[in-house]
């Protein structure tokens, strides 16, 4: 009966689809013409923008025209991306349709007409959008003649610079006298009145070096020794009392406070510094409101006499309001000092002839810095890439020097350096305006965000990530970035952190006021800038736990980047509407939020390229609709400790390049991951241990074609699942040439030896960890890893004999724990025998700097190599661990002595715990007979 009713409906529906498909042929032809027209117009627009951008800083009308054109360009980009995304989705859906089993043919037949009709409707919708954008472009392009713009063919080729290393912050600042003055005020005798804290203020214009001077004083050795506690807080605008109090507590207590109320925070500050001599630096203060400062100042009265508050500000009125006892006015540098700073950067690694030829004109350029060290550094970075005198003269004669009205002359040097950059690098720099002042950016994160915006173009020889690295180095060399801190993560994941000078940040926001916005909890509900939300493209938001998500953000329909910093549990409830409205988002950062799930509506974000969910500790699930994000490039769920599974259809994310799951509770890898052949990062692969997840889990062999994986890969649960040696062999780890670090975690099974042999890594591996290994021997391939720098062998409970690790030529760090070895002899060092002549010339562990041995409960002997062959040192050359700096031995109760070559090594640090025999022999307190053999070591802990 049901089939009789459905049959005429299906017949009619099929006729409708046929008609629509016929119309679609004509429509699609029109779409392709419109797409070609858009691309052609885009080329002209980009050329015109090059000229218009240079004129907009002087002509407000030009700037308004440029802003309108940029808006249309965003629309153009979005509709073209929607078109390409739709085509990719349809191809994938058609492929899945064709692979369905015969048992599902009837269901497929019932669905096919609807599927086709949906596709037709979608194509028509996109075609209409493209037509609308074309009309807008035509209207705006007509105004080109009014302003007389010329086609400016800018090159995207990077000019060679003499060095792409990060800017050296030790460049002479010329502030020796001021530094001595500040240090003197910090260390000088203080008013002994109870509860009185002296305030010292450094006052000067932007870019003159206030923060640098404060840093020099803060890090001075005498200052560090003088104060019990040192705290640095970047204040900026607005003056957020709660944030400042939290920052002070975090520095004092080495952790973020759980308090949220200002009164409770200030009470805690008072208790934490009670009776302690402290130095508090408040950098970049703007507020003149005494009511904001007074409660914080009162909470600091409990410190010991001699405590100091050091303030930097651009305004004398701020210093007066804060009750300054000593004011240091920072004046402009002399032309001579500016030339010195400029020359150190501009003439870096140039020949003597080149320096002589360009010095005269270089002095003239440096004199235009008007005594501002930041300007001298920026201009020096600009001139690094200029090789000819003509290029230097062009900079000297630029009309941009006439823009004296902007920031008292600091912007012209920035504009010169900015416009000298290729357009592709310029937009990467401007993107940074979305972050708050003093925001600590992470290079790896920033490059992924640039990728998400389409700023980095891949070439056959270079991945997008490498292009982004190059752009970062260029901006760093031009002094657009500063305060670099490099963190050496164990997994080799890049963690370079840095900031922008506040003037550089002002400059970036000056050029992007309609596109980038930072929103803070203190000014929610108030206009934060002149612009409305509708114009914003990149937004960072900071909300307190008491502040609900502002629905007004959903008006920003064209938003492309959204970074939300909040612990507000109600954020999860707001996300469905956010995802429905803000469908243009390409980069979404919800890291460290308290959301419990990602709503199904995330599937509507078809443009999304980067999704950062790191440290969302309450996050329990990811919806299957996430697998509809066909453009997704990066997914980060590190630290999501409540997340047990990844979406089952993750294989549909064919453009995914980076997947981080470290620190989550993901129990297995879903089937189909082998389809993501674009993957550059897969930090973990968890082998399913059987059970209910077995039918959903990927096999090790799915790694076979993922040969672009680089960086770090950890494979967990080896031997615990249904995998055998043939599955492991199919993984073809040796073909992952970009892999630098590998962790192989086993199940203590004695048959692990068969499995590990076929898991041979690439020969260029630099870091290897083998844990919970149950085999009797280590694999033969280990000694072929000639570039290995770090080796960790942990809990290999059946391992009695070590291979000749001393023969690994580049090994720098070796950690041994939980092994069954009884002796570390000549085999461990790499000497086969000690017959005369065989070790006359031998170099073992030539680069080893760190050696840790933990829980080697059966090791008794650690043999030395005495000079028994040719007593004459001129005829015998035995070198073992010649660079060893750090030795740590813990819980090795049977170990009797340290070998002679260790005692002769240039050790800087020796730690021995849980080793009673060694303690008796070498301990100073025990009057050990061999204490004199180690007493020269700088740091000893026994």
What does this structure look like?
By secondary structure, the protein is an alpha/beta fold. The chain folds into 5 domains: 2-147; 176-329, P-loop containing nucleotide triphosphate hydrolases (Rossmann fold, 3-Layer(aba) Sandwich), CATH 3.40.50; 335-511, no CATH class; 513-666, Ribonuclease Inhibitor (Leucine-rich repeat, LRR (right-handed beta-alpha superhelix)); 819-942, no CATH class. Helices cover 36% and strands 14% of the residues. The chain is built from 26 helices and 30 strands. A 10-stranded parallel β-sheet has the order 17-18-19-20-21-22-25-28-29-30, covered by helices on one side. Strand 11, helix 21 and strand 12 form a beta-alpha-beta unit. Helix 2 runs antiparallel to helix 3 and helix 8 runs parallel beside helix 9. The longest helix has 55 residues, at 2-56. Mean pLDDT is 82; it is low at 1-27, 105-111, 160-170, 524-531 and 867-875.
Number of distinct helices: 26
Q: Going across the major beta sheet, what is the strand order?
A: 17-18-19-20-21-22-25-28-29-30
Summed over residues and divided by their number, the pLDDT gives a mean of: 82
Helix content: 25-40%
Protein name: Disease resistance protein RGA3
InterPro entries: Apaf_helical (IPR042197), LRR_dom_sf (IPR032675), LRR_R13L1-DRL21 (IPR056789), NB-ARC (IPR002182), P-loop_NTPase (IPR027417), RX-like_CC (IPR038005), Rx_N (IPR041118), WH-like_DNA-bd_sf (IPR036388)
Domain Disease resistance protein winged helix: 434-508
Keywords: ATP-binding, Leucine-rich repeat, Nucleotide-binding, Plant defense, Repeat
